[in-house]
Amino acid sequence: PSPEGGQRYFHVHMLPLDHDSIGSERGVAVIMWETTQEVIARQKAEEMARHAEAQRAWLKAVIDQMPEGVYIASAPEGELLMMNRAAGEIFTQGDDVQRLADVGDPKVYGIYKEDGSEMALEGLPLMRAIQKEETTVGEEQLYIRPNGARSNLLVNAAPLYDNTGKLIAGVVVFQDITHLKEIERMKDEFMSIASHELRTPLTNVKATAQLMARRAEQGEYPQREVTSIKAIVQQSERMTRLINELLDVSRLQTGSFTVHLTHLDLGRLCREVVEQCRLAYPQLTLKLSVGGPVWVNADADRIEQVLSNLLDNAAKYATQGQIDVRLTTHPGEGVARIEVQDDGEGFDPAHSERIFDRFSKLDSINHHSKGMGLGLFISRQIMEAHGGTLTAYSPGAGQGATFTVTMPLAETNG
Length: 414
Fold this sequence. Notes:
The chain is α+β, with helices and mostly antiparallel strands. The chain is built from 8 helices and 15 strands. The protein has helices spanning about 35-65, 85-90, 125-130, 180-215, 225-255, 265-280, 300-315, 375-385, and strands at about 10-15, 25-35, 70-75, 80-85, 110-115, 135-145, 150-160, 165-175, 260-265, 285-290, 295-300, 320-330, 335-340, 390-395, 400-410. The strands form 4 sheets. Strands 4-3-8-7-6-5 form a 6-stranded antiparallel sheet. A 5-stranded mixed sheet has the order 10-12-13-15-14. α6 packs across α7. The longest helix has about 40 residues, at about 180-215. The radius of gyration is 36 Å and the shape is elongated. The N and C termini lie far apart (about 100 Å).
C-alpha cells in the first residue's frame, strides 16, 4: 500500500550471501524494482479482454435472435469468425459448422445465381467484400439444399474495418425469401388467368359497343345515348390496355415474352405515334424532330407500345402542355436515340430507377396517376429485349422529365 492510499507493485529477488572465511556472517541481498505500471497495464488488458468477450457474447446473443442469417468471415482468407443461428439452420443442415470456415467452391454449398446458373467463387458477395472491398445490396441467389429443396435468398454484404481503417473481415446478411417468391409466382399466375378470363367477355363488349357507335353515327340512337355508347367504347379500350399490360407482365415473369424483329424505319414510326398522340390529346403541343429514315431491326408493335407509353405518361403530367420528341442517330455508338421531354411535375433524381419497378408510383405524383404502374416497367423490358435501354432523368420536382430510349442501328439502311 502506498502512503497516498493506492497500491504499488514490486518484483523482488533475494539472494543469500556467503563468505569464504570461517565464522563470517551470512547475509541476504535483496533486489527490488517497481512494476506498478506493468501490473496496471496487465490488469487493464485483462479487463479489456473480459469486456471484449462480453461484447462478443452480447453481439452473438443479439444476432442469434435475428430472423435473417448473418455470418462474419476474416479478410482476405474467408475463415468463419461468427455465424448466427438462422445462418446455421439454413446452411449447415446438421453438419459441422466449421464446414463454412473455408468458403471454397460455391457449388459445394449449393449457391447459384438467381437464374440457376453457376456462380464463380470470386462472384460471391462475401468474397467481393473481403477481397475487393465491395458492398452488395439486395442481390438474389438460389440455394439448393442437399436434398434438392430450393430456397431463394436476398443477400447483402459489406467489408468491415478496424479503427485504423484496415480491412479485417466481411459480413453477409441474407434473408430467405422463398415464401415471398412463391406469393409473387401465385400473384403472377392469378394475373395471367384473370387476364385471359377477362379478355374474352371484354372483347365481346368492345365489339358490341363499337357496332353501336357506328350505328349511332348513322343516327339510329338518340343523341343522349351516343355519349354513353362512346364512353363504353372508350372505357373498354382502356380496360383492354390494362389487361394487355397484365398479360405482358405475366409473359415477362414466365420467360414467354418474345419480340419479332423486322427491318423498321424508326423515324416513320415516331411520326405515326406522335400523330396518334395529337389526335388523343388535342390540348397538348407536341414538337417532333426527326431527320431522314433511321433503320433498326425491331418489333414495330412493341416499339410503338413503348413510344405510346412514354407519350401517354408525358401527357398525364405535362403542366404547360409542351412535349418534345427528338430522334437522333449516333453512328459512332451504333445506336439511335429517342428523347421524350415534358414540362411536367418531374421527380426526385434519386427515384430515376424506382419508377421502372413493377406497380411503382412515386408518392409525389400519385394524386394524378392513373393505371397500375406497369407501363414503364414493361417498356424497359421491351427495350432490353431489343438490346437497347430506357432511362429517365429529372432535375427535380416541378422541373419536367426526359425519358431516353436507345437501340442498335441496323447494319444496312433501306
